[in-house]
Amino acid sequence: MARLLGVFCLLLIYRRLDDEQQEVEMKILKFGGKSLANGKPLESAIEIIKAAASKGKIFVVLSARGQATKNLNDLLELAAQSQPYEAKLAEFIDYQYLTHCEVDLATEFDEIQRILAGVALLGEYSLKIKDRLLAFGEIISCKTVTYILNQNNLKARYVDARQFIKTDDSYGETQVLIDLSKRQTKEYFKDPASDTIEVITGFIASNAQGQTTTLGINGSNYSATLLANFLDADEVQNWTNVNGIYSANPDLVSNAKIIRNLSYREANELANFGTEVLHAKTILPLVEKKIPIRILNSLEPKDAGTLIDAVGDGNGVKAVSIIEDVALISLEGRGLLGKVGIDGRIFSSLSRENISVRIISQASSERGVGFIVDLNNADKANRALLREFKEELELVDIENIKANKDVAVISIIGKNLNFIEQIYSTLNRNKINPYILANTINGEHLSLVVKQADVKKAANVIHSHIFGVAKKLNVLLLGKGNVGSALVEQLLQTQQRLLERNSLVLNIFGIADSQRLLLSEEGIGQSWLTDLSVDGLENCTFDDVVKFVEEKHLENVVMVDNTASETLVHEYPKLIESGFDLIASNKHANTQNYEFYSNLRSLLVEHNGNFLYETNVGAGLPLIDTIKLLHTSGDKIQRIRGIFSGSLSYIFNTYSNSDVDFYTVLQQAIDGGLTEPDPREDLSGNDVGRKLLILARELDLTNNLEDVQIENLIPESLREGSAEEFLAAELKLNEYFSARRNLAGSQEVLRYVGELDVENKTLEVKLDVVSSDTSLGSLRGSDSIFEIYTESYGENPLVICGAGAGAQVTARGVYSDLLRLAKNTLVQSRYQEH
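Request: output the structure for the sequence above.
Response:
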């Protein structure tokens, strides 16, 4: 019995040991240069290595620390140009010794000095020499970190990867000899001590002769993933200075977000199209054995980062990436039409110059071919094509071969790219016209070539469209009067609620009065009025605004005009051409002569612009939209009749239903803010005439303001002079309007009525006597009322009634136009649908 118990205990012990062995994972930890810089980054990296070493066997692959590779390259250039380099070399050595001056790096620094001296003597260097010099960045880094780890009572071993990573002889960016490297790596690490941290140089390798070579761009990452493949690691951790791979470059797109999970295929597409964290070649060694890699931030080690594995998360579009430093090569001409072999000649001539092509687009007519090459190959590609097609150019079969260096590529990575038309439309609204739009055969990425100057704006527009992040209108407000001030306060008070409920940001980037202009990319705040008077720019024009918008790459810009300026509306065309949408409570744009009105509409169509002006008639009432809907639907509008002025509505509603004299009522309206400072602007009837004209034009009538018959309510003797003189004529005003009131019967009241007869094309505004039991006669307060007579409604008109005046009401109407513009023009995200 005792023997059986002993055997059972041994089995439990072996099983526990076996379980513990299974729990131990082999991990490759790679640290980038910024994660190894002096100070906090290096300290954090050491702590991460210590924590990982306590859990199992780790292999640590290091880049050169800080800016070491760049510094060495700069030193090489100085030496080749016979420029003094000693001071820069001393700075380099001081930096590497700064944390731990006791590390033995004398051999490395002596060798660096000898190489630079030799280059200075010759005045040139080979790629072989360059590889040899740059390798010291990783060597110094690994020796330093190995020393620090050992000083922290950890067992660490410096490992020179040149002993087992083998390449061909193409210096600068060699090809790894995979089978040989794999055999030698396995042999080198065939029996590694489990308690030893292997600190391995990234980026560097050697050829068959033992000469130093380098692995090119992202070389240290490539070293790490090769080791993971060769040693069958369980995971690679790539420690960087960012929290993972983002849905866009955060430096260009402020609301970019971390992608938590990617498949190898998606990561490869991102790497091919501009994501800087990984290069495409670094992913390939992981695919074969399905080894996951995590992109992590060494300064925020608790963040989960981005996991790249075989399956990803299955979601659709992943990111918007950007490739800069490229050029667009284009060929155009009749000789391309239907001619066999043109494409072959193009790409053969480029291949002979070792030029790789990224994106290709060919016009359906075959009259044009365009493709993208790296910027440093642009001139070489252009020369190669000029040689190849010399005869066709002489015969003008090919009209032009040119290299446009002012371009960038935006790529949308992921599946379900079924919204190309919407993206194109959104870009067009923002005055961004892609040179090329190319979708891949498998539909997994879409690429657009745009002007370099447009890349930031385009990236933000596309990213917001795809990922459902907060949509943004950048708003320029003109006018700080009653309506303008009320609108600013409404916008500022509701910003957070609007963001939470509608994922919409109405960013007031500019505000202006007649003298000053305040601009802020991030948006104005509660102190806007003081900021405008103190920091506002004087003597500014719309050219200054357009320049600001272009420099800050602001997308979805809209101008809101809350002034009463007639001069200002003549600037509207410039704004439309610059990509602005327009919203206005100002009526003048819609009541200029019909030629201006018509040209403005044509310009809006040409530039895919929007112009909303619901508050032009009826303040906050939905009158214009209703009339547009009825007219568009085919219901024939015969007549519109109503009380268009909230000010005059209040005056005559009060005056007709009381014994109070006219002057008292007028003064009450002035004190209540219902009239203009000079009430003659209301009493003249011109404002009502303009409103009536606006409705007529919505119904496709071509009338001008002089066609409107307007009864002026100002006694002729009081039409000239100042407002003060007018308001001093109390007696005359009372006599004048008392006579008009006496014309009404006991069941009748005075109303200032506007009427549009669509069939006869007549527009009339007059002080009328109406029955008090009608809809117009029973009106109270400052409300406006509109009766719309159509074929469908017959003798029973559609009636719209409500508050027709007041700064708050009008401002709320303008606010509604902003929301309507956002809804209609900011394309909703399709990402979540898939």
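Residues 471-617+817-825 form a domain with the Rossmann fold fold (CATH 3.40.50.720).
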